[in-house]
Structures are given as structure tokens and as C-alpha cells.
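User: Can you write out an input/output pair for a complex, sequences first and structure second?

Assistant: Here is one pair. Inputs:
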Amino acid sequence: MANEAAIINVVARTSLWLQPHRIVLILIALGLVLSAAFFMRWDWLPQYYEMGLIGIWRSLWILAVTCVLGFLLAVPLGLAQAAGSFWFAAPAKVFCTVIRGTPLLIQLWLLYYGLGSLFPQYPWIRESWMWPYLRQAWPYGVLALTLSFAGYEGEVMRGAFAGVPKGQLEAARAFGMSRWKAFRRIWLPQAIYRALPTLTGETVLQLKSTPLVATISVIDIFAVSSKVRQDTYLTYEPLLLLALIYMMITGILVFAFSRIEARIPNKIG
Amino acid sequence: MSGGAWRQRHAPCSIFPRHVCRRRSRRRLASTSGATLIDALLSASAAGITELLSPYPPGWGGALLVGLLHSIEIALGATCLGLLIGTGGAYGKLYGGPVVRDLLAVYTTIVRAVPELVLILLLYYAGTDLINQALTAMGYQRVDVSGLAAGIAVLGFVQGAYSTEVIRGAILAIPQGQIEAARAYGMSPGLMLRRITLPSMLPFAIPGLANLWLIATKDTALLAVVGFYELALATRQAAGVTKAYFTFFFAAGVLYLLLSLVSNLIIGRVEAWSRRGMPSLKEAR
């Protein structure tokens, strides 16, 4: 019975969504896509297919690593601003302001060209184990994106930490939890619940920042499309496909986050 | 794009400007690691930095300032265009017919899901191409679209999608009674927009719009990728010529930061002005 009701519900919602004008719009969109498929040149696809997949994989990998590392950095940044003494709060605030006040492109170029051009002057850096990594571009890209994510998310975490009601923390202390345990069990989870909706947006923004690493010669999916454009002299096809790929990744991210959000109790605070 | 960067970096000392070479020989004398570190952070000596950043021709400060001016021009133009598109878009989304609403939903969704860098490239090429095709079809000469106009149009189109959402939310936040009262007084839709909706939506919209302005100032840096001369590209050129990469990118960062901080000050004033007569945010909480 419940199953039938659910099916009827879905059908009703679909028919509400699928109004006549939407059908026409969908047909027009289909027509556009089909004409793009037929009238534009896609014969380069088989040749660059594998390179494109590697590029997508690299973009996703950079996104995942920088988001996780950035978030780990954002927690202490937010905590320092929300509850730290002046000597912790002020540097964290300055860091967040500087990161949020300058373009990511400049941060990236400052790290890669600026810092990177200073390292080779020092023999002890050139002889150290880090040198093989410092010669490549991706560590600079990952570092810049991580710091950027930490700066934006640190500000969000400040609000989230400050928004957890005091009574919750006092109750935790009254139960005899140590400060660390109260932080781990009460304060941090509730702050993350509060930050989760903005975390979706920040992650999508981070995805949209990843193509910048192509400007420092990391071969991500954006760089692959630039290479296709250079090799084939096509302007639109690689860019349109690139936009489609990013839209699909964004869609998957938003869907995944909405699933996670749905699992979290929403009556808090 | 920058494959040569490493090669330049490892090039022998002779291609570096003179002051860098001079400093290198001096550094060999410095023995303490602390001194080396300080030396490393200041990629040129203090005199060298002022020389490099001086606003008069041998220095590159003037070029950076011109770039900053261009950045501000584009950001201003793009924000204004974005506000126009956003107001129209918000009205369309709230009061438009079903087709208009769906098309606007597609516009905002696509623009917000695709990276700005990709959109800029796509719109820049597609826009100039379309204009030229239309002109040749009508029998006119092809024109070179000015970088400033193209930059403003492209960024304005992107900003429009975001400000549509901000303004839509702000209009929805207006107490319904105000709109009803305006209708009851027999105001026409245009008059109501000018006298009631826009002024009373302002306090709700300004935080979001201020954020968009800050994003716009930072997004102008992306136009360097399509070759428009603004602060990021000016910095890149200056750094490429003098090889003082750290100094110039640091200086550009400081300029962008100053722009953001000054904007924040002005935005605070504007927000206080738009909220005049309303209870302060602290009391409301």
C-alpha cells in the first residue's frame, strides 16, 4: 500500500513538473544538443579521450585533497577566532582576511613563480629530499588551493563554532567530560552540522577554482581542453564539452552533499 | 602556458638583473640561516624594491597602478551590468511567466555551475564572434571589440546570475504588507518598483551584493588569461621582464587587499545608510 502511494506521489510530482511548456523547452534543448553533435566537429574525441579522463581524474583528485586538507586547517582557524585569546585570534583573522581579500590567481602565482623562483638559489634546498617535489608545479597548486579553502571555510567555521549554544558546552562539562572530549563529542559535530550547507557551496566554488592550476602548467581537465584547442584550432567544441563536464561534476557534488545533509538531524540549536 | 618558467628559473646568473646578481655574491658571505631566510623573503634589497616599484618608467609601479585602475573599471562596469541583469532576472523569476522563469533558472544554474575561467573564454570568443558575424551579415566591416567592453560584458553576464539570486531573495524578504499598501494606493508596477520595492529591498540585498562586488574585483584577475591588460597581467609582465617574481606578485596582492579593505569600509557606510530607521542588527538578535 505504502509503495503504491509512493508511486502515485512520484507520478503526480512528475506530471506537475512536466508541464506543456517544459516539454517544448526540453525538445528545443534536445534539438540544440543534437545539432551541436551533428554540425560541430568531434572527430578529435577518440584521440584525446584518454588524456581527458586522466585530466578529469587529476581535477577531482586535486579537489578532494585540497578540500580535506583545507577543512582540517579551517577547524583550528575557526576555533582560534571563535574562542582563542587575542594572540591566536588575531593571526587567524589576518590570515582569513588576506586569503579572502586577494585573488586566488595571484596567490597561486606568488607561490609558484615567486616562492618557486627563490628556492633554487639555496644549495641546501636543492640537496634536500623535498627538491624533486618542489621542482614540480602541482605541490604549489595544491598548497594554494588548500590555503584558499582554509581561508574561506575558516570564516564559516568561526560562525559555526560561535553559534553552538553555550548551554550545550556547559552541560558537557557538567557531565565531567574533559575539554578535549567535550570538543570532540559536542562542539565540533554541532559546528560541522551548522557549516554543512555552506560546505556544499564552498566545495562547488573550490571545484570552480581548480582550473586555475592549469595556468601553472598542471595538466588538469582544463589544460587538456586548452591543448585540444591549440592542436585542432577549434574554439567552441572543447570549451562546450569542458563546461558540460564541470556541470556534471557540480551536479554530482550537490546531489552527494544533499544526501549527506538529509542524514543529519535538522533540529539543532 | 608557462613551460619556460622553470628554464628561466634555472638560467645562469647573467640573465638576472644586475642587483639580483650582486645580492647573490653578498649572500655567500651571510652565514647564519636567519639572515638567509630574511634575504630569501626579500627577493631584492630594499633599494632594489623601491627601484622596481617606483611609479616612474624604470620602475614598474606605474604599470601596476594602471592595471589596478583597469581592474577597478571592469569591476565597476561588471557590477553595474550585473545589477541590471539581476534586477530584471529577479523580477522575471518572481513575476514572469512560466517560460521566462524556466529560462532564467537555466541561466542561473548553468552560470553558477561552470567555472568562471571557462565561461570567460567561452563568452569572450563566442561574443566577439557573434558580433562580427552579425556585422558581416548586415554588410558592415568586422570590428575589434575593445577589451574593456568585452571584459565588462563577460563578467557582467556572470555577475548577473549571482545577483539575480541575491535580489530575488531580498525582494522576497520585504514585508508583504508594504507591497499590498503600494498596490492599494494604486501605484503602477514601475512606480512601485522605484518607490517601494527597490528601496525596501536594499538593506536585505546589500550584504549579498557587497560580497558580489568583492568577488567581481577578484574575478577581474581571470581576464589576464584572455589577455586583457589589468593588474594581474601587468604584474605578470613586470615580473617576467625583471625576474623579481616574488616582489611583484606580493605587491599585486597588497594592492588587491587594499582594494578589498577600502571596499569593506565603504560597504559598511552604505549598509548603515540603507538600514537607517531600522532596528540595528545587534538588537534584533
